[in-house]
What does this fold into?
Amino acid sequence: MKTGETRDTIRKSAECLVAWVRDQHYTGWDIYDGLNSPALRKIKNPYVQILMLQANKYSPVNFRPALRIEKGIDLKAMALFAQAYASLFTSTGEAAYRAEMENAIGFILGKSLKKKYGYDCWASHYYPYANTDRTSLSGETPDIIGTRHAIFALCASYAITGRQEEKQTALSATEFLVKELFCNDPALPFFRYSKSENEDTHIILNASSQAIDAIATTFTIEQNSCLLAMCEEIARMLIKTQNANGSWDYSLNRDGSTRRVQQDFHQGNVLDGLVTFLSYSDQKPQLTECIRKGAGYYRDVMFRTDGRSYFRYPLPYPTDVHNQAQGIISFSKLHTLDSGYLKFAEKICLWTIACMQDRSGYFYYQKWPLMTNRIPYMRWSQGWMMLALADLLERYNGGA
It folds into this structure.
């Protein structure tokens, strides 16, 4: 497919997805919303909760209407949409995209947990969630992921509107990450995933990288030498904990030993943070080599040559739309190190559009060789794919 045809295909895909999402008024289901069922909410055993969450997550049949699970508006989804609209407005200049961005920003500002925690911060979701380690998250447990994407959205909007409220809210959220989630361990400094209990016993590597991704993004608004030094420490930790083949484990114990291996879109999350911070780093040669190794592994091992991702390497299936979207985002960003990565992002994107986008505009959740899970998840599928498509289109138009 020629370059012009590729861009037209991606643009039309984005327009169809935007129309579908707007028609749904941003309201939808989430893969982890199982405990929003009035019947399942009564279950208190954490192991049964986890079983029900996972069954609901992977079932190709949508039992949510029968379980009386209502659709909701997800904070992280709105932050993803806000970022996407900012990119689409930058690419096209169309006022409708700016209006949608501003509506999403209004929602984000209204969901801040500043009154409770003293800093602007956000929970990633509107549903209760149970972890395998028996910890739990609620809709009022702020975390790195929700706060990170709110920061991204606020910074992107501020670059367009110049509104001081957006700037100050983003800076306040950065203070939350630093003062509430940073653990200054002399051996392996890291960021805790959330404010929930018992989260300082292990290190989730992608969470730390996502934290410096958010902090480094605010340097476009206001640079802080103390935060630069902190990001440098985290980057050094990520260089140190990278495996010889270029991959990262999902989490480590505090002594540096492997706790959990899970190779999927989180590899892209780690790379994104390091690439964002690279231009500010004093250890550019080491960090650049680290990124090159990680990017090579991500492309050559975790994706097939036609643009399909592995589920969790080495598991080949299902092809998950979130893995696809993250690949598009990460390889688009990595083009600053190697222009060939932008072509690979295109390849992932075109395969996903051809094989996972419904005629009505939304994207499917997962694809198996003989079956497709078509449940239209708003955050996991539509939020991430809109951001991926918009990001790629912005780069075509000279975006950084």
Summary: The first strand starts at residue 129 and ends at 130. DSSP finds 14 helices and ten strands in the chain. The longest helix spans residues 3-23.
